[in-house]
Design brief:
Blueprint: E1 13-18, H1 32-50, E2 62-73, E3 82-92, E4 96-105, E5 111-123, H2 135-142
Length: 155
């Protein structure tokens, strides 16, 4: 299935964001950098609220580093729209996680953009990849895990 064919059913966690005037670029639609900002926001919001991740807590032994990112655009979004972001984990490895985020106009099922990134979790000190993701992280991420090809199976 192509990314353009994604619908809400391909995602497990949603957040609503109101676009701001400053999010628009000179062409009157949301600037590409804002998509990256929103992807980062929903991923980290979920990690903090559902996976017990505390990125600013210096006593936390692990942090996630973004090693790759992407976004494909299918329809323009613009201020003052509200956009619903859908989150899914597409792949979870021993030390890495691949996230996908769908952008939807509020109340619509057609995706306007699909983006995401890959986190590698590393030791805070030394920045070496962890040997294994923490259990509470795996448990939280498992709730939004929808491997490619299994999107409909977990409804």
């Amino acid at each position: 299935m192509s990314l353009k064919q994604r619908t809400r059913s391909h995602y497990r966690y949603f957040e609503l964001h109101r676009l701001r005037w400053s999010d628009n670029d000179q062409y009157g639609h949301v600037n590409n950098s804002i998509y990256a900002f929103l992807i980062d926001s929903i991923v980290n919001s979920y990690l903090i609220s559902s996976c017990s991740l505390r990125p600013t807590d210096s006593s936390s032994p692990h942090i996630g580093l973004v090693v790759a990112s992407k976004c494909q655009y299918f329809a323009s979004l613009e201020f003052p729209e509200e956009v619903e972001l859908g989150l899914a984990v597409r792949k979870m490895g021993r030390s890495s996680v691949e996230y996908e985020v769908g952008f939807f106009r509020k109340g619509r099922d057609e995706v306007s953009a699909v983006g995401g990134f890959k986190h590698v979790f590393v030791e805070r000190e030394g920045r070496r990849p962890v040997k294994e993701l923490r259990e509470e992280l795996k448990e939280g991420l498992g709730k939004v895990l929808v491997p490619l090809g299994e999107e409909k199976a977990r409804l």
